[in-house]
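Example (one chain per record):
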Amino acid sequence: MIKKLCYIIILVLTAQISSGQFLKPLIPSPDFSASLDKIVSSFSNNYYSIQGNLIRSQTDVDTYESLTVLPGAEKSFIYRFHSAEDTTASWQGIMYSGESYKDAARIYRNLFNQVHNTSLNVYNSTLHFKGEMEEPTEALRFNESSLKAVSTNPAYTRFFAEIEMVNLNQEWEVHLNLHNKKDDK
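Predicted structure:
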């Protein structure tokens, strides 16, 4: 009887430890959620509250540093396009840059899960992202998963989070883009 009880306790403890490790990449960290909340909330004022110094000015776009960065991001930018049709800015975080497809794919999947599983409180309304992950493949130079914001706040009706994995001449990059776009669906 005591042996059976010991086996049951070991089994339960093993299951709890392994499920905790299994769920870890699916559950966003508090730092990730807080940073994403700050970036998404800043969209309603066109990212001006988190805009840093001008990095580069070109004919069609001005690039600024972002003062708010997601944990693990290498760089973050705000893009202001010179367009009469759409005056909203976009935010981009470069989450990985390197030669390893395996590392890029892992970060792409984890980033999708973190964004997908984060619930935000944006100006007294709940916001979360809904979408399906496009499974990355090394054969494609460009992989993208698009998540649409679901919120009662009308400012976020056309707001999307897009996770990209791009092959740039033997180097992989993983991006998170937060911006308005025309809903194709």
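Caption: The radius of gyration is 19 Å.
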